[in-house]
Amino acid sequence: MAPMTSSAAPSPLIPVDGLAAALDSGRPPVLLDVRWQLGGPPGAGEYAAGHLPGAHYVDLDRELAAPPGPAGRHPLPDPEVFGAALRRAGVTDDRPVVVYDAGPATSAARAWWLLRWAGHRDVRVLDGGLAAWRAAGLPVTDEQPAAEDGDFTPVPGGLPILDAAGAAALARTGLLLDARAGERYRGEVEPVDPRAGHIPGAVSAPTTDNLGPDGRFRSPAELAERFAGLGADGRPIGVYCGSGVTAAHELLALESAGLTAALYPGSWSEWSADPANPAATGPQPG
Known about the structure:
This is Sulfurtransferase. It is built from 11 helices and 9 strands. It is an alpha/beta fold. It has 2 domains: about 15-135, Oxidized Rhodanese, domain 1; about 165-270, Oxidized Rhodanese, domain 1 (3-Layer(aba) Sandwich). The protein is globular and about 55 Å long.
């Protein structure tokens, strides 16, 4: 895996006023609504009740992930299924894309990362999501747009990924961040996966600490300071979570801070299902 280095790329986030202006421009972005919550009802119902005008709904469980199995609860999607969903929403190679969810950007970040991984070069996440859009007094609608005819064909490989062996090695030689809540990292609770704990050597880095009190991402300088405090010192960085969803939120924050990292898509759901893989508990990397 190539070393993870700092980047001068444009921000992967777009503020509410920036999106409003883009939608009023001569080249509006494709809007993707990716609302989802672990263990909750599908986001399609929330989308139907109200969404940004012109937004298309994309289902995380069915279109942004393959079926659960040995590779974890949310394996990387079949490119054909993923591509069909994007084309139906009007995604093209040369048109910007903005993704959003209810607010924390957890599922929106998954879509952002997948689009980048699949080769799309102009994707951003609405900072603060639908909550920030509503708070600004901007309109929502229950009118659903007709299916479109995009031309985007995913070409996987645009961003680095790790397998279980790579994650284990990076925990020893680089910086492996665990994006789950602290109590799951410490092994105090495990509500979803086969075993509690974390990958030995991984550092706890809950995604909630990427956000300010208003639900928006902290400034790039604040995020850079956060990750430096966690050990980002030029070493290669990798990120995992429960099933590769909230880890994308961490990757979004890292990119906002000018850092790049690899995703372990199988994450703890894959790691913990293999009894040969060790599990550390407690507050230290182990």
